[in-house]
Amino acid sequence: MSFFKGWPTLTEIFFGKEEKKKAVKKVAPKIATKPKATPKSMAKPKVDKKPTKKELSKLTKIQLEELGRQKGIELDRRLSKDKLVAQVHKKL
After folding, report:
1. At the N or C end, where does the chain have fewer CB atoms within 10 A?
2. How far is CA 63 from the centre of its chain?
3. How far is CA 90 from the centre of its chain?
4. Does position 63 have pLDDT exceeding 90, yes or no?
5. 9-29 confidence digits (pLDDT tens)
6. What is the C-alpha separation between 29 and 62, in angstroms, rounded?
């Protein structure tokens, strides 16, 4: 019956294939360490930089409108994309 070699038997189909149990290695738990505090001179504050016009021009008009709403700017999508980019860049 080499024709059916590799095919599952009816027992395997209905009851599942019995898998060999693998030996589980026990690993010692890791001890959590506190992160070292950085001196104030080394800590860099997060600066929200102003996006350039080139970066803004890569966005779609819908994305520009969403960005403007997040920053509190109301934009009119009927205007051209260049005008929207200029408005967002000016107010940011």
Report:
1. N
2. 18
3. 29
4. yes
5. 777 877 777 666 666 677 767
6. 50
Q: Is 71 in contact with 84 (CB distance < 8 Å)? A: no
Question: Token digits for 76?
Answer: 């009119």
Does residue 67 contact residue 59 with C-beta atoms inside 8 Å?
Answer: yes
Burial 25-50 (b: 16+ CB within 10 A, else e): eeeeeeeeeeeeeeeeeeeeeeeeee
- Residue that is written with structure tokens 């996006």 in the block: 51
Sign of the four-CA dihedral 60, 64, 67, 69: negative
| Position 90 pLDDT exceeds 80 | yes
Ramachandran quadrant class, 68 (left: phi over 0; alpha: psi -120 to 50; beta: rest): alpha
